## 1
Amino acid sequence: MTEKDGHKLQPGEDIKYTTCYMCACRCGIKITLQDGRIRYIQGNPDHPTNKGVICAKGSSGVMKQFSPARITKPLLRKKGAERGQAQFDEISWDTAMDILTTRLHKIRSEDPKKLALFTGRDQMQALTSTFAKQFGTPNFAAHGGFCSVNMATGMIYSIGGSVWEFGGADFDRTKYMFLFGVAEDHDSNPLKIGISKIKERGGKLVVINPVRSGYGAVADDWMPVKPGTDGALILAMAHVLLKHGLYDHDFLVSHTNAAYLIEADKGGLNEGLPYLLEEREMHQTQNTIWDTVSNSVKEAHQDSTKPALFGTYKGKDGKTLVPAFQLLYDRVMAEYSPAQAEKICGVPAEQIETVALEAGIMAKNETITLPIEWTDVWGKTHKTVTGKPVSVHAMRGLAAHSNGFQTVRALSVFMMLLGIIDRPGGFRYKAPFPKPIPPCPKPINSPDLIKPNTPLPNPELGFPSNPDHLMVDAQGNPVRIDKAFSWEFPLTAHGMMQNVITNAHNKDPYAIDTLILFMANMSWNSTMNTGGVMQMLTAKDPDGEHKIPFIVVSDAFFSEQVAYADLVLPDTTYLERYDVISLLDRPISDYDHPADAIRHPILEPKGDCRPFQQTLIDLANALGLQGFCDDNGKPQFKTYKEFITGWESAPGSGVGFLAGWRGKDGSKQMTGEPNPDQWEAYIKNKSFFEYELDESIRYNRTINQGYLNWAQKSKLIRLNDPIVMHFYSEVLQRFRLAAQGQTKGRQPATQAQRQRIIKYFDPLPFWYEPIEQTQVDAKVYPFFAITQRPMVMYHSWDSQNAWLRQILGQNYLHMNPEKGADLGIADMDWVWVESPTAKIKVQVKFSEAVQPDTVWTWNGIGKMSGAWNLDKDAAEARKGFLLNHCITEEIGDEYGNRKVSNSDPISGQAAWYDLRVKITKADEPGHWPQFQSLDRLPHMEEPRKVLRYEFIRGNGK
Amino acid sequence: MTQMALVIDLNKCVGCHACATNCKSWNTGGQFGPLTDTNPYGKEPLGVWFNRVQTYEVGKFPHTDVVYFPKSCMHCKNPPCVEVCPTAASYKRTEDGVVLVNYDDCIGCKYCSWACPYGCREFDTFDGVMKKCTLCADRIYNENLPPDERKPACVLACPAKARAFGDIDDPASEAARWIAEEKGFKALPEAGTDPANHYLPKRKAKVMLDRDMLTQHAQRPVDMERKSASAGDVVSEDVAQT
């Protein structure tokens, strides 16, 4: 009998460790195998992310593996069959790759931007973006634009880090936590572990969400905010902190630009910019403060000075100078009292006041002191690290609105006022964050840089600091197919995948040739205006050619998107392939440990399935792309496995996809020469690597010299300059100045673009009504309508899961009973839900756990009949529904007579939750709209009528 | 006596269903499996689950509470299912109080499911026998597993750490301590079944701040704060210099 990790292995039994992918949480899993088949999946007790626990999805991994919706052959749309009918011929991989390579070769040699590569939830953007960059197309992004990019950019542009894999609450010490707009998050297990710790110590959880469910169930305080009004609520809490002096003066001065003097005189090139005594780059700290000791302007961050937060001053040159803090104070005190906020957000002023006071007083009184010596960037050594036990976490409820960026800015400023960033008990960064504000990579910024057969000189995506970093042509028009980094949507760090099909269909700004979609259900639950988008996918020009000429879909399952493909590439599951969860992408670091992880094949790929990673390597090799191939076009890496261990960010950089066991003998960490045996080292260590940060470099990392030096040496950041948080956003003001004509650089081309930027690019956070809602009559459409993500399913791909769909197979529209009664609606009635875009017929379930002006449903439950190889009359298809039909993907440009994407005007985040609807009782029951049913693909297995363990074991009938 | 049981903390449960599916994953391939699913991809999928989570809303908006109530066999000290079983297939194990079903003796008459006030019996239509939670009887004493993992799968999985497992008759056990310290209660005590599983109630945050302090701060606007602050704090900077 063999022993392994405490298990006495029985004959045929084995234990293996890999990384889960039932959602994006990236937990470590421990798999018991019996005769090579899965017996049991549990959490890996040693894993930093989940520490042995596992969620409902992860526990059901075996049912994903055995899904009858698996596609196992490359498929080509049948001659004569229309897109959407899912009529395919099975072809060989050689044929599939020939078709694709020939097509891409032609595109690349003529006009590389005619290839658009967009990926869903993939966790491999470092690879996909490299492929697109080396191919030479700017038309690449992942799903961030339609996910929660406002959370990412709103915080990264403010504090140099964000939530999820970028940072989070210090659950081991926090006692008071705000959770904004989270139904479920891809920080799923860490949040559950953490909230449990708060409850354990009797701490308080405040949940801000129109719906009380999930985490809300254990909240000590529920603030049922109206959707899209969180910004007003947060600024009202800031008002309370300011009113009662509950802000952290020292933190604001040392960690943020709150004390920096801002030029307050109107006009000129410097209006609203930090007042400088000498030129500096945005990331440098040679700014000015008003020193209350000498009563004069002094350089910031000097030990001898005492910077003013309040006041209005005159410089020697006669300029009017005001600390950024005073500007925020004036706004928040005038416009955001709790009583004013109550009128907007619906949460009682008294509740706002109480909660803000509780948090503020706790932050002020309950100092956490750790005996850890550290040195700041100004050379001062501190004997201790101090902090406060107040923290925040937020997700899509803040993000998925057209005012989300400024709302997340407001949240960031609230955190700065409390002084709870990267300190014990508060919010803490995870490596590779914090990064400079904004981070260094800039997107490619001119159409002239796109050349046939040539890689792009810069990445497709990045973080603009000013308008010169926009991807626009000389006339100011967008150059990307999704119109990211345009004047309409400037700070679109994750792209705008939600626009791709609409824009490609409209040939606006130009026609593309090939659209490659990986793991994204863009014809169904990941798009707005689903019915309209399905038509765009099938639309043809007068010459009979599709408006989007060639659509390639790579997916492991028979999703609704697969039906609209011309070429289908069968992908593998997470248990069948190699993967990296890389520090170059979205790693598994915790607060004290930069960390990354891998997946490795536990099972053989099913049928002819091939990992999309391998497909990209094969394509890159066939096309002779540099970086994948040598200067003579000879492939350097035959397999993805070799590519991962062999590739370096630049020749000799020592930076690769994986940070563990680098160097020829595997002895180096973070950086080092490629190690061909790296995979085996990871597998031996239960599929993850973690580096332990010295205690002295775990806190105050934005100004911790030891940390910044270490991070620069480890090549996590390029610069080791201090990172001063943007309490006041210089970036937004630079865009606003450009729009006002006060710049020597690029300016918007049209008046509409100028007015839009002037309104939204406010350097201080503010609340505005979501844009779509300003165009919809609230009297006609009285309800806000939103979705929530269930804890048992991750997007659409879990409806095929035989266990999970038993828990949630039909969604309802949840509404307040009194509101229902007013409309003559009874519980479980069928109702019409109508927006200006579309109407749907759905079933109502009354709930007291929802803000009464709001209706909601679970996300991604409704299915197209026959998709995912469910029975055509499955509840998901006949009763489940998508709210997406009602959401418009384009709204009127407030300042022009054209349409723009229904997205945040700063970040390009899809404004899913800006929807308003009216609800009327339906005469007849029954779900609407219904679409044509899809037939099972010939090669797919008939779903089992009875599912038993014998089948999982491999000896069932 | 020894009475093994689960103690479930409703103050921590967020209704994620990890306990339910991990139970399914372990037990379908375990000694008391399989947990058959019929019509799993059809209109009305129906499966055997040893563990289900119910959702309740309590109160009217805005004073609404949401309670998730995970429910599995309570392993009653006075189990009605055992009493009514005509073949003695249902029995309560003397050594640890676990209620089990001997599938070989079960004739599928369903008397037990009528008798159980908790609805915690699961009829496997394919096998024609009654199944239910065994407290992972094939894990908790299983010497092939590492000692740390000799627990029910639901306890091992629960991300919110809302579950304790142990001998509730042993005051030193974690389960007994949870019950004692946080006023653990039994479901449907009026049914007279004396369930072994317990639940911990929702409870107030302990860090609630002193109301007086809040009021005091509320009456102390920032100007006073500045005046009362010592030199070097926010006092001196607030003099406008224009």
## 2
Amino acid sequence: MGGWQSALAPGGASAEAILGLFWPVVALLGLIWLLVLLVLGAGLLRRAGSQVPRQAYLVIGAATIGTVLVIIGLTTASYLVTRPIAAAAEAPLVVQLRGLQWWWQVTYREEGEAAAFVTANELHLPLGRPVRLELSAEDVIHSFWVPNLAGKQDMIPGRDNVLHLTATTPGTYRAQCAEFCGMQHAHMALLVVVEPAEDFARWRAAQAAPVPAEALAAEGRRVFEQRPCGACHTVRGTTAAGGTGPDLTHLASRGTLAAGLLPMTRGALAAWIADPQTLKPGNNMPLVPLSADELQALTAWLASLR
Amino acid sequence: MIPDQRDMGLDDAALQAALRRVWSSRGGLLGALASVDHKTVGRRYIVTAFAFLLLGGVLAMLMRWQLAQPEARLMGPDRYNQVFTMHGTNMMFLFAVPVMEAMGGYLVPLMVGTRNIAFPRLNAFSYWVYLFGGLLLWGAFLLDMGPDVGWFAYVPLSGPQYAAGKRADIWAQMITFTEVSALAVAVEIVVTVFKQRAPGMSLDRMPLFVWAMLVTAFIIIVAMPAIVTASTALILDRLVGTHFFNPAEGGDVLLWQHLFWFFGHPEVYIIFVPAVGMVSAIIGTFCRRPVFGYLAMVLALVGIALLSFGLWVHHMFTTGLPRLGESFFTASSMAIAVPSGLQIFCWLATLWGAQPRMAVPMLYVLAFFFTFVLGGMTGVMVASVPLDTQLHDSYFVVAHFHYVLIGGAVFPLLGAIHYWFPKVTGRMMREVTGRWACGMIFLGFNLAFFPMHILGLWGMPRRVYTYQPELPWAGLNLFASVSSVLLAGGFLLFFWNAWRSARHGAPAGDDPWGGPTLEWATSSPPPPWNFTRIPVVESVSPLWDAREALPVAEGLRLDRRELLITSLMDATPEARDSSPQDSIWPLLAAIATSVMLIWSIFTPWAVVWGSIPVAITLIGWFWPRGTPEDES
């Protein structure tokens, strides 16, 4: 229910465990709510003397003890569900996730054959393997929340938080910043692609590679390097090595542009570069004046960075 | 005037004439501004708070309009962030807390049978400070300088680096205004309840509403210092470059959240506990029997107050605190369901077979049961750590706290307005209009807010100015927005009813509902001196038990404002004390204080130079007049 950003359609172990607690709790509390209303309704319909019957003390006492028991039960159940969720697994895939106004920096560490690399706004996870997400924040507080996979965890400046999760169903899920972080809090999304281990390994190898040689010959590359783009963005293999904006080395391999704002199409790329402040007011990408030819070339080149 | 004239041996007419001479405020604008009558101040407080409710409602409708469809362009993010911040700040600090204190400030002196609130000049001062704080916030908003960092103003977003300009300072300083006025009223209520109760009104004969206000006053006194500390540290960070919340310089971001929620969670009970008192008052009167389990009700109030200070961390379950510690706060948060449940059970027992009279106040109580208990259930859910990691900061929480705040506090408040309106104005609110408004508000509220539970579970975060069409949220958002029109219509009908009834309502008489407590023993509206003769109380429902002839106490002087001081436990008379005269100085002191506080948004030197006028007005305020009170 609710699709690719829903706590009710779990695709991960934590989300499943939480939902397994959620429905019984809803049923129990819903029943109690109905009971209170039934007693109220019955009491209103009844005609009794001017005094409250003495047995009321017994009923109220029993109901209070019942409340206490329900609370003890729910507290225990909560604790039992929390414990395995918070537990660290052995040999997890470690991914560093950093929240910035208003996008996500994703860093995969070196692991065996696989080289380290940095990407943005898209997280790929191998199916069934435990993942350790190391969460941090660059500027203000953000919160990482993929409802289909796990509960949320805040990203707080000056603190290092960790979220353990294991994806159990392949698919593409959507995460969205859950802590108010300023102007574009609404447009700070992240795609999470859960894929079989071999697909994941292929993706990882492709992402780690720099821009292929033939792409370096393109006119768009010249525009990118001559214009101020490289001051904020990195494209591995070129001279552009800026660090304040998302890494664009394999931009066109991602599903979305500008942290979930637009689909990754050539048209959207052109629109975004031409006028980022109208599409995402307040974001940190300035408008760089380009001629029509330059914009054409730049867009074509970026769209080729797969 | 004979010095030391007493109220013994006079007939009612002569006595009232004498009381009118000392207790009436002077006419004219100056007289009105100088009034320290708790009823005048209380009326102003209540009307102002409802004006802010109306304004906050307009903001809510703007947000529902914006969210009715994906990628709507009614507002951009900058405007929307101001609007939702203003809505929350306004509703919490300018409506909910002040209106509850105002109800207490108006009703408590009447319910305990005294002639004015304790420290009446402080009371007048607190109103002016509250009004100026509200004007500051709304004035800033109209100048496009409204705060845009959320009503919780989390650092570092509200800190000097990420909130340039003065918007966050205005938020933080507005908090100072609210702190000052709230603490002042809290102190007045504690002293009024402890030392000015009518003879014989021992603690176990106090109306439950008075107990509720007493408990609320103590929560305010304990909770407010945390937010004083927090907002002061924020202002210092922003204005003079301290680094309380800057992790780069050894400060801590989470410190703000601890301090804010150590105040912020009790804040919820500052709003809810008075509402509990209102529900008790209404149920008792309309069932024509005292609320069942008086002792249990009082202990539950005290229990809620104590527990409310032990669960602030449930606002921080996703910040990465140790899991075992979090589980403790799950237990303490859920534990508050025990005293709350106990109160519900006692009310149900009172209602059982009582065939209550179904007037509008009672209808609001029924709406309260339906809505508040549901909100309590979702409250138990968000208290659970694993569930909260999914629900926190989603629209589920928006639904939850509107259920407890509107269902748990605003419905009882609207019922209380209908219930005490005849006492305040001398006229009844129109019953038929009231029923329609109640029905529209109840239905509109549930239709507008219930779908938000589902939106939250479908992953919709709070505080987003828009959402994208590829997410499945458009249908329920549109439904909520359309339903909110019904809710707003109900509120407009309520306002219209109050406006119209104040002028043309049927005359009420002293006691239209047959209430048990002392406020119904005096005329409607009450005279400036509240009670011509101070009543003596022999039970918890004095008007039911001694209806024909309420015993009275005599011996107060008539040549000055004088009230009776009684002992804390048993309310045995101890002394006569003078009550201050009207004075313009509280208004002047409030103006001087406001100038200093607003000025200090711009320079720390304002605290130095601005305190000089404050000192002058305080000297004027406390200047000895050579009256007997000062000489003895």
## 3
Amino acid sequence: MVAKETDDNQLMSQMQDLVQKTIQRTIKGVQFVNSAPASVGLTPKDLIYSRGTLRLYHYHPMSDEIYRVPIMIVMATTNRGYLFDLLPGQSMVEFLLKRGFDVYVVDWEPPMPSERGLRLADYTDDFLPTCVQKIEADCGEPDVSIVGYCQGGVLSLIYAATHTEGPLKNLVCLTTPVNQAEMGLFKIWSDERYLDVDQLVDSLGIIPGEFIERGFEMLRPAQKTAGQLRLWNQIWDDEYVRSYQAFERWGNETLPLAGEYYRDTTKELLWGNKLYKGTLKINGKDANLANLKIPVMNVMAEHDHIAPYKSTKPLLDLVGSQDKEELVLKGGHVSLIAGPRAVKRMWPALETWLSERSV
Amino acid sequence: MADDKPNLDLAAQFQEYVTQWERSVDKAYNDFMGTEQYSQSMNQFQNLQLQMQTRFKETMTDQLLNVNMPSRDDVLQIGENVRMLTDRLTRMEEKLDQLLDPEGQRVATKRPSPPRTKTPTPKADSADAPKE
């Protein structure tokens, strides 16, 4: 009798919840349609250096005492760096600042037509070393830790392998594809026999952001529609909507790429797999990962569809470092940086690893 | 008995349905697009499109030159020059502000950095970290 009454109560409560959410869904749906784009990247920062496509930001410290060694986060060249500072409470930068780190971010603007000739070497042998110098001058410390994300991780690895004399102290690679033979669909679509990268670069000069974005979308064709359906289902939840809008904005702001850089990365990394094989040369210097002797941390996402787990896994076998650690997390390429699992697992692990090596 | 209970959590059911649908559609597309034939066709189409685009661009540039009008590249170049000039002006303005500001304000523009003396205290620090 009591059980029957409890069941009826539960049923009533579920009915009420359903009706309430349906009403809220309607009201919030109208609000959503009229809402402004998400405000992202709100943590206070200063632009300390810019040149063409390159931007170097310094975030204002949020702690009374900070670690000696600053962190330079290197964003992937295809996307905006505010992924690291998406929303208050969903910001890796804010987390690190509150934990006492001095944080700099290397971000990218769309390259100008005159920058179509930028090569891979310009990023790894000019942009990144210049940023490191600017940070040294700004903070007065002789050491820097680098955290590179995706292609930003690849650039950081090449920089580290070709600048072994310092001042790089620690290197963290987040979802960084090292073995590009394991790049899945990207590898198949860029088959050397069919993709005429020379014609592509020579015709376009700058590879449009839409072209890059289409490539990402083709990896998960149903993702966008499924995301919109989930949004409709969850639209009564303000936090969910705020996060959705921020991710949506970030995904839509895919950056164009300098043509020569695209040609280099396709031929040297994707086709030649030279970083993995240890045969990559940058301005005559060996970019062999065995050159790396500094502490290295490799963070990978188990269900990464952009930089598949198999492409990120071999890093620690290739570096010459004694102090090396890897962390495999459930989740995908983007949620690893700014998703709920990042907040719970990745950021604290990053903090622990870096703090021990930043004094 | 428990199986007979009506499940009114339609939101959860819908969520599950969307996830299953997304997985199956992605898998079907990936199986199709992951073939060598697809890669070959896609790249052939892209090459053809690029060739047509290049020819069209050349023709248009010639036509615009004939009627004394700027081409797309010219307009982009002007845009880039404007952007570079704006950047340069902004930098000059910032430098002028720094030079003209009274001493006290100039010092204030350089944010004082906290002391770099922090040492790791994992136990205490992780106490207020979010728990899984």
## 4
Amino acid sequence: MEVQADASTGAVVFNIVGLAATSVKEARERVRSAIRNSGLEFPHHRLTVNLAPAELRKEGSGLDLPMAVAVALAMMRKAPQPRSAFLGELALDGSVCHVDGVLVAARWLQRRGYERVFVPASDAAEAALVDGLEVIPCTTLAAVIAHIIRTQPIAPQPPTAPALVSDGENSECDLLEVHGQEEARRALEVAAAGGHHLMLSGPPGAGKTMLARCLPGILPPLELAEALEVAQVKSLLGDLSSTRPLDWTRPFRAPHHGVSMAGLIGGGAGLAQPGEISRAHHGVLFLDELAEFQANVLQALRQPLETGRVSITRSGGSVAYPARFTLVAATNPCPCGWAGDTRRACRCTPAMIDAYQRRLSGPLLDRIDLKVGVRRVPLGALAAEPAGESSAPVRERVLAARRRQLGRQGCLNAQLKPARLRQLASLDAGSRQTLERWAEQRGLTARGFHRAWRVARTSADLESSDRIAERHILEALGYRLHDVAA
Amino acid sequence: MAIVGSRRPSPYGEAVAEQLAADLARAGVIVVSGLALGIDAAAHRGALNGGGITVAVMGTGVDVVYPAAHSRLADDILAGGGALVSQFPDGTVPRRQNFPARNWTMAALSDVVVVVEAGEGSGALITAEAALHLHKEVMAVPGSVFSALSVGTHGLLRDGAGLVQNARDVLAALNLAGEVLDDPLATPKRLGFELRPERDGILGHLSDVLPMSAADIARRLQLPVSEVLGRMTALELDGAVRRLDAGYVRALRSGKERA
């Protein structure tokens, strides 16, 4: 996008043209004050700032700096170096302030062939994550102008070195703290290895939240490309740490069940903001008390669960955000939560349980590959439960299984299309027969059929096995808690 | 006679109700129950399997089958020469306050009320209480002392309800068994469940009442949980085990294959 400024004779007016949103038109006062307070000349006659191309809608305070630079340079009859871009908000005294989304803008500019970007000093480290782009940190408008007219150059920001990956600090929870729950532990490992979505069902206090929090810790750290994508989402939301913009930790997001559609999926006025599912990109989205979420909010999860992206259309235009996350859902077995508990009686009627489980059923449940029951271990008996492995060896196995998948097919098993699944994960006669028998007995959909197949592929990968054996299929079907006899 | 009990029974309770009803129906007894889920449905089904007559006492109008999933069962009851009866006018929808009155009617229609699996506060206990008030015989089938579903039935037994171990106990109470009564010291003739041939050692570790999780089984057999999950799925496919809550129970089969 280009900012042009023209000072001509006529009445003293300051016009901004080129489909500018209110937030951009407000810049007039900031630009005028910032220029005057920086000891620069502001035109005493007709001033027009044109934002080109005119058909594109412009938003945000990040245009303050380019407009002020254009006006100031117009008065001096100078121009900046070619292929330079400017981004920043101005305070009335001329200092350059933080704007959101600098990383996203910088990556876009670099791809478009820009060589240099002027950004607020506080956002310079973020912009310098991008290779092949000179980043000029700006503190004040006066300093920017002085740099351009070469009276006092600003030293470019050195490239931001990615922080070192440190093992073990990937998660706040370690599996070592989970006693018993071998079924859920195994399901977590399969979920991590194959990128499968997981549902934990059990009474309050069974440790569902803790199990979910262990998942990021058994996932490998983010790859550089993944970390950049995660940072971009944070950058758009103004959430990026200025000291450590690139983080290798897998995101873990746990929105409350009262979350709105805009909060979970993305949205808001004008151009949609990323929601929780995009914040969980390459990480874990934990939805506790799944049945308490609004039905339409859960419905909207279907597209991103399937495609790993979400597109949202608002008045300001349509945007697509990445949303490739592992869903961990937790639910009680019934409204009171105690069905199946050995110590407390459940007080729900069969009709209530039925209605409760129906809220969960259907298309969303169909997209969750792994479903396990979690039992509550009474506090006194907790110490007697065997302590399991810590997260580190589990992560090693997960990593090996993921490498096998990426080497074989370039994606995780959960993302395999049915055609490639048939080609890469063929079943022997016995396995196929077992799977078909179950599908017939339980009225499995085609989607469910393929999902069980993919889980079996992951189970085989965890064993470093090229072939899917019947036991892998049988294990995969063991996680299909909600298939009922037809 | 009436057979009543939990709407969420264990496979054990369901099998007992079904077998008992079948044996009694064969002996010419009319089996009364409430067309509800669980024990009620098992009792109706058992009576039909035994080729007998069964009566459903409904808490709704006779034209409103509740739960709707039982409309097939209701048709079968009528086809078997039985009856759907109700004290409520046609079109009455299920209402919580109508069911206790229905339970009284069941007791009034029967000479004996047998309770199979009733937790604390179960509606089946209302039927038992009604039977006591109406001077009918109350009997109960014992269950596992570990099961919450035994609290109500064991309470009845402690308070003097007749013990039911098989159909002959009920026939005796109905004075239909002739002179030969069971010798209380002899081993009771068990209700004739057939366990599937145990081709898998896992089955021996399973209860027919209390669900056991795959993790518990894995620990007992010293097997990885992934393998246990697979083996349980194989047993499930064969109909030898069933999922219950977060675990597995042994599936009991009465003589006839269940629908």
